Amino acid sequence: MSGQGDASGVPAAKAVNMLTLVLIGLLGGLITAVSPCILPVLPVVFLAGGTAGEPSPTGSAGSTGTSGSTGSTGSTGTSGSTGTTGATGRRGGGTVTAGSVLLDAPSRAPGDRRPYAVVAGLVLSFSLFTLLGVTIISALGLPEDILRHIGLTLLVLIGLGLVFPAVERLLERPFSRIPQRQVNKEGSALVLGLGLGVLYVPCAGPVLAAITVAGASGEINADIVVLTLSFAVGTAIPLLAFALAGRRVAVRVAAFRTRARGLRITAGLLMIALAAALAFDLTTALQRALPDYTAAAQRKVEDSDIARQKLSGLYDDSNKELSRCEDGADELRSCGQAPPIEGVDSWLNTPGGRPIDLRSLRGKVVLVDFWTYSCINCQRAAPHLRDWDRAYKDAGLRIIGVHSPEFVFEKKRGNVAAGARKLGVTWPVALDNDLTTWNNYRNRFWPAKYLIDADGTVRYFAFGEGRYDQTETMIRDLLRQADPTVALPEPTGRSMDDLTQDRTPETYLSTQRIRGYTGTPLVDGEPIAYRFAQRPLPRHRLSLDGTWTAGYEHFTAGPDARLALTYRARNANLVLAGTGSVTVLVDGEPTRTLTVSGAPALYRLTDDKKPRTAHLELRVDGGLQAYALTFG
């Protein structure tokens, strides 16, 4: 705003701008906190709000009381009173100890601030390290994934403290000198939240993308701080509600009051298991399997015209030509010359790691894909990119992945290379660690796809998941424009005519969520010899044979394990984990053998050009874990 305008309007305009950013950040945080990406931390948040404390056998000051009265440095209380300074008491079956700071007794009064401490720690560390993590780590010369390792270590230590009282007492010592008893007791709850905060990997929309980019580039101003704080508050509200619900359940349910010790051990083991799952990337299979049910709300709030204007205004005006086009337009447009891919740390999947200059690809159609390997949305989009690369590479399509990290640990080349291998990414990948290319394209989403024509002009872009058929149509149109004589294969995606109700629905291999199962009744948690039901199986039905251990999250194969189903779809896929092989038979004929290794990942079982009905049989090596069947 120029200095010639009404000066009194400047503060008002700034106030309106700040209020708008607050509302955008708050709503963005609320949506993020209920997305599928938050699921791994929810059990810990819930139990941290409600699991019972560890009783002390003697009390911390040597005096104890019974129901209705407690001792206080040698004195006794009256009915309904509670002791002070190290006293212990029993009230309604619960146990309160001054020495228990990790998880408090469920029978406490609602004034217990443990849920608030856990959520406050999570939000504080997540906000701080999202904004300043890159700066701090760079200044100290620390490894990029040090924060993740610290978070995992804290989670394991606190889990051990819940299982073993001696470890708990060691963890309490840093807080023992704090005179206020209540502050002392919430200390480890805050530490638990701090540990979760550096492991918290939410699905990123434009709001979190703007915060991440500002933190990575060091361009932090008042607007970014306001946006970060409002996003953090929005994220905290659902998480706090979940933690308070855990506390309320603990107060109301008798099992929590009478089995305090057992529940503490359960909570500790759960935290250790979560740390292991996060360390070995085992949580992503569940997240990939769930639909992105918050995508529509996120797009409506964070990618609205107002939000786009405000978030884009946080940066400079370079490459504004890209604003000529809109996300997912239904026709090819001219969006300006494609910005260069520059500021790249290194390259993957190129000869000798040499860089790629977009100018060298004139005459080709280029798809620039912004992604990051831990982003669930990016993982779900990867199969479509693989299909397009396979189908159209000979016709002139070139895919370039731009790996723009959302978190510090995603900057490590080894982590990116391993993530790319798991997802089957064979095309060139630029490690955009400083987010230079991200800013060149004024990008706001993971994933995001930009189509560049043979003359180097951006003609189309699509943010987030979805619109795959439309994007493929644009690819085919650009290939024909580049070479009118090109012979293109059949589209890889399903046409609208194929989106029929007779396609076999997705099913989880879970004792609670399986659908279409027939045959020997499922037994939870025990290795059982199963037998196929009648053959052939009806459409959309599956059956087991051989030894399987059925569980809530997955089925584990034993000796001679087989799985059969009759499906209708273009392709069938199965999420598998472990080490071994799977032989695939279609209509009785062996078609392929899959080699499975490592954490849960999606494996393609069949791949046809058109939907068809077929009988599928899988012969699964013992020890492999099967999670979910999906059909496309």
Report a brief summary of the structure:
The chain is α+β, with helices and mostly antiparallel strands and 632 residues long. It contains 17 helices and 17 strands.
The geometry reads as: globular
Return the average pLDDT rounded to an integer.
74
How many beta-strand segments? 17
Low-confidence regions:
1-8, 52-110, 178-184, 494-501
Helix content: 25-40%
Distance between the termini: 52 Å
Overall structural class, as computed from helix and strand content, comes to alpha+beta
Q: Which value, in Å, is the CA radius of gyration?
A: 28 Å
Helix run count: 17
What is the beta-strand fraction? 15-25%
Largest sheet: 7 strands, antiparallel
Structure description:
It is a single chain. The chain is α+β, with helices and mostly antiparallel strands and about 625 residues long. The protein has 17 helices and 17 strands. It has helices spanning about 10-30, 40-50, 115-140, 145-165, 165-170, 180-200, 205-215, 220-250, 255-260, 260-280, 285-290, 295-300, 305-310, 375-390, 415-425, 435-440, 470-480, and strands at about 70, 75, 90, 95, 345-350, 365-370, 395-405, 430, 450, 460-465, 505-510, 525-530, 540-550, 555, 560-585, 590-620, 625-630. The strands form 4 sheets. Strands 11, 12, 13, 14, 15, 16 and 17 form a 7-stranded antiparallel sheet that branches. The protein has a 6-stranded mixed sheet with strand order 5-8-7-6-9-10. The protein has a two-stranded antiparallel sheet with strand order 1-2. Helix 2 packs across helix 8, helix 3 (about 115-140) crosses helix 7 (about 205-215) and helix 4 (about 145-165) runs antiparallel to helix 10 (about 260-280). The protein is globular, with a radius of gyration of 28 Å. The model is unreliable at about 1-10, about 50-110, about 180-185 and about 495-500 (pLDDT under 50).
